[in-house]
Amino acid sequence: MKEKGSSFSGSIGFVLAAAGSAVGVGNIWRFPYLCAKDGGGLFLLVYLVLVLTFGFVLLTTDIAIGRKTKKNALRAFEALKPKWKFLGKLTFLVPALIMTYYSVIGGWITKYFLTYIISDGKDAAADGYFTSFITSDIAPIVFMLIFLALTAWVVYRGVEKGIEQFSKIIMPGLILLILIIAIFSLTLTHTDTDGSVRTGLQGLAFYVTPDFSGLTVKRFLEILLDAMSQLFFSLSVSMGIMITYGSYVKNEVNLNKATNQIEIFDTGVAFLAGMMIIPAVFVFLGTDGMASGPSLIFISLPKVFNAMGFLGRPVAVAFFLMMGFAALTSCVSVMETLVANCMELYHKPRKKMCGAVGIYSLITAILICLGYNKLYFELSLPNGSVGQLLDVMDYISNSFLMPFISLLTSILIGWVIGPDWIVGEVERNGEHFKRAGLYRFMIRYVVPVVMLILFLVSTGFTDLVF
């Protein structure tokens, strides 16, 4: 059920909303960590190549499908080819899984932001603080509820008055905060007890210098999978979000230009996020501080802020405010996709579906919170990692479903519908699609092969080969 007048007011509103979805928590903590883990500049190089090729193809495909069909992901594939409607259902699963834990992470960020607002934050830098918080019974649920309520309020207000208006206000502030903190990180210095000095510029060199040592075919595939999974999460492709946002784009908007702007926004912010975090962690904690996932943001960085002295608290407040903005814009896009799909599925108005999705999000997020205490377990995943409930949801959505959906989408567009269907939509208003040749080649011959390989890597199949 499409609301009357449910659309972005123009190109700027769409680009900022889409960029807001793309620029999320994954850009801020996951991208810097992966750079440090996967050879610094080597990961940057691989990621940039993927953005200019796979990212461009997948982003263009999703947005064009949305605008051409004027339907959300659940119905768009059925409109393309009725026999492929199952792909819409698979796509619907991704935001449904992500929504279970995104507001939980948003709650963690809210907790730390308020901690630095009301105190000097020394407790946050203490060993065991983060673990004590997430394993407690009530506190994580309370902060998750605050974050989820704010997300639901934005989505409840609709596309133009809610998502677009919110993005126009938040995104410029988010970019400015990231830029200021990134520049500040480069000015930092620290002297160890042995007299050795580490500087922010040395941290920047560690960040951007490629490390080819120990590179094997299997290792390169692992880096490729890390970069591609980051691309999926970062650009919000293969999860129905960009199809949903594309359905709100007016016909007169230049899709080619808008796609390029989203790519620039996302890649620029991801790079700045690395420049913001890695030099600071390197200066005060060395390479040992480059822990993965939540540990980087909620354990390593509070120690960095504590080591900064009187500057630590204001920088921490600015950082977690920025993190809150990034998490909120992404969580809004995930919830909006679920609400829009449910409106199509049940033919109910936005307000009712927003309430239903909000209840689903609340119940599942509580279960994720309990996954760190009452429902705690450890499970070995096919990609070799060990995780609990949140990690399982993240693995299924990002490492398993997204490559699989991209594989099927590339087959549908490249070989069943034909790439000219997408090219024609991009050139609807007479605009020249400069990368049309690259698009046709990639969607037919390259994307299916690489997505199949990545899917096999994510399932652990390649361990039997290499």
UniProtKB/TrEMBL annotation:
Keywords of this entry: Membrane, Transmembrane, Transmembrane helix, Transport
Give the transmembrane ranges.
40-65, 86-109, 129-156, 168-188, 227-248, 269-287, 307-332, 353-375, 395-417, 438-461
Where's it mainly located?
membrane
Superkingdom of the organism of origin: Bacteria
Q: Which CDD domains match?
A: SLC6sbd_Tyt1-Like (cd10336)
In terms of SUPFAM superfamilies, this protein maps to: SNF-like
Could you tell me which NCBIfam families the record lists for this protein? Na_transp
User: Any keyword Manganese?
Assistant: no
Species annotation: Blautia intestinalis
Q: How is this protein situated with respect to the membrane?
A: Multi-pass membrane protein
Location relative to the cell = Membrane
Keyword Transmembrane helix included in the entry's annotation? yes
Q: What is this protein called?
A: Sodium-dependent transporter
